[in-house]
Amino acid sequence: MRQRSFSLRAVDTAVSTNIPVLNPLRSAPFEAEVLSNDPLIYKIPNLLSPRECQTLLSQVKVLGDEQREEGIIDGEDERILKRSNPPQVSLEISKLWPLPFLSILAGIPPLIHYYYEQNASQATPAASFLDILSQLPPSDVLSLILPPIGAALGLSLLLAFGVILPLVQQLSNQSSRTSLAVALNQERDFYLVQDLVQRVSKATQHDWSRYEAPVLTYYPPGALFAKHADASPTKGSEWKDEGGQRVVTCICYLNTMEPPVISPGGTGGGGGETSFDQLGIDVAPEQGSALVFFPTVPGDSLEADPLLTHESLPSESSEKYIIQMFGRVGRVPPPLGLPDSFGALVSSSDN
């Protein structure tokens, strides 16, 4: 059985703060509700207070100004609450290993054609295929088979990278995610995220510097995020300059969504669960609660855990607000991560 070493007992989330807009953090340790031991998934019911959630919600609503097509925060910068990026789609080179071998098959028809030509030109009884080929110099064999093999291999790669991958990415862009999001990664956001980041860091035992900046995400009614994995299938190789592989996910729910209710007129309200399809676990959003899981398999392999694919289910009539944080193996540089000045603020508040 896979095992992840992690202590969930009485983790103290208290940190000092001098930010008046948010409630002071509770000094009492939180209780973690374990939803799955393998892979480890747990829920923290009281990570954010109702007032803290309302403060963050008000920021989302400012960003989503309905008088503009997408909305802007204000005139000081050009950040917008915009459509979230869909999960990255990529082709793993290691999975293309059959292509060279399949392309070799393209060299067989020219040899067969040469065999029939030779037999047709001889008055003697037909020689075997191997007999005729054995009389052919190796250089002539190569001249027969290399052009079609090269053409087949080139065409296969062209189809894979030039047609199939762009098509999959286009379909992903159109349907996989329909939420709106903005990263809180600037110094002006520190008053909003300082306590949250410190608390999540303590709750997950993962330093703030190895987290991406918190992202506020808004799901309008009917919006979704189709099944995906948070970790990279290539162990984070494409993110080597951005902190490497994702190893921690924390989703904080800013509003409560009740389960769907069946009525005579159909289904109304609720929904919005975070659903783990491989585990049969659905987590309903509850204001102030946080969902934590670790998207790589236990150990140091950094392989994406196939059991932790998940999706955000749509709600036909309710809005959903979350703030999410992704922890990585190494330091996440700004603007994806928080700047070093955030660390100075944390140090000063701890003293």
From TrEMBL:
It holds the Pfam family 2OG-FeII_Oxy_3. Its cofactor is L-ascorbate. The keyword DNA repair does not apply. The keyword Iron applies. SMART domains: P4Hc. GO terms for cellular component: endoplasmic reticulum. This is Prolyl 4-hydroxylase alpha subunit domain-containing protein. It comes from Cylindrotheca closterium.
